[in-house]
Amino acid sequence: MNSRMRALIAGGGIAGMATAMACQKAGINAEIYEAYDESAGLDAGAYLTVAVNGLDALRAIDAHRLVIRAGFPTRTIRFQSGTGKRLGDLPIGGKLSDGTVTQTIKRSHLYSVLSAEVKRRGIPFHHRKKLTGAREVDGKVVATFADGSEATGDVLVGADGIHSSVRHLIDPSAAGPRYTGLGNIGGFARVDSIRLEPETFLMVWGKRAFFGVTPSPDGEKWWFANPPSERELSREELAGMTAESWKQRLIELFRVDKSPAVEIIEATHGQLIGTNQYDMPHVPVWRRGRMVIIGDAAHAAAPASGQGASMAIEDAVVLAKSLRESSDVPSALARYELVRRPRVERVVEYGVRFSGAKAPGPVSRIIRDLVLPFVFKQAASPKSMQSMSWLFDYHIDWNEPLVAAA
Question: How much is the pLDDT for 152?
């Protein structure tokens, strides 16, 4: 495709920035249009993991070292019940050829290093550009913004998250995100009295809620919790929750468990921002004409999958390759969907299974805690780990043509 092609990217988060860098490497002029003063999501979640498959996709666009320098390795998940019983350990994926493993990184640091790299590469990054509409004119797509300005390009990429505007521009009847019945909140604490295994997540299936924590290299405890709620909290309710009110709620949930949760939460200082946890049910329409959605806009996996960021990065690289290799934009977008849809929908279902186990009833909880030690022992076997190769060993060769999965 003509290297003078121009891609308009709605959304300056992980998906948008990765898409811009991938497009540039593919010889496509890319510009990012972000609705907020800073990259969206800076305050949405304390930290995240980038799995080895996401790092491998970043390596295809010469960016994986950014995450490695700003994060730290995480190799294992250790599971524990609310009674203090050890349920089992699981490795978090494998290794890249250079020995790199899954990385844990503060969300703000990830946004910062990616944003700095986008700017270093000379990719235009426009803030305060809230997308309000788009139309096709004479073989181009024209995006309109809330400030009255417009931008014209060859393709509009909706990298604007789970509440995507571009998704509804493509398909006005598109379903919204699906509430999982859980919340998501996390923070950082220094509690020298609590010793945790380095490069390991301790995940506690508590009696009332799920808790996870990992130590950073300097000893700080990075934690998250998934408080259940049958009712989806409104934006106003979430905004009205103070750090102290969150701490009180979480301490009450975890007080009944034998775990470090209460001590860590009590020692946490600073702002705490809670969110509802969502995933996306099957999204029938990803593209129309010269518009397409990627990342959470198309297929948000529940955080339990540990794959949200990695799937968005993979999308970005595959989309740029498809635009580079196809003769026209609609064909490129069709090819992108053909390659990506089977994989990402499998990952979404993988996340659903884990989320469902986080908030069972009393009887189901007893059964779960009896069965899981045997499940984890089997899952950690070489044969079982090989069965997960579909998830972690996924590789995008930048120099080879795209091939859809059989």
Answer: 98
Residue with tokens 């899981």: 372
At 272, list the tokens: 């705490």
Q: The CATH number of 6-177+279-392 is which of 3.50.50.60, 3.40.50.720, 3.40.50.2000, 3.30.1510.10? A: 3.50.50.60
Q: Are 89 and 76 in contact (CB under 8 A)?
A: yes
Residue 88's φ and ψ, nearest 5 degrees, are: 150, 170
Instruction: Give every CB contact of residue 358 below 8 A, 6+ residues apart in sequence.
Output: 182, 205, 209, 210, 226, 228, 304
| Cβ(405)–Cβ(318) below 8 Å | no
Domain locations in the chain as residue ranges: 6-177+279-392
The C-alpha atoms of residue 87 and residue 203 are separated, in whole angstroms, by: 10
Task: Name the pTM for this structure.
Answer: 0.91
Q: How many helices (H) and strands (E) does the chain have?
A: 14, 19
Alpha-carbon distance of 16 to 295, in angstroms, equals: 9
Task: Tell me what percent of the residues of the chain surpass a pLDDT of 70.
Answer: 88
Burial 332-344 (b: 16+ CB within 10 A, else e): bbbbbbebbbebb
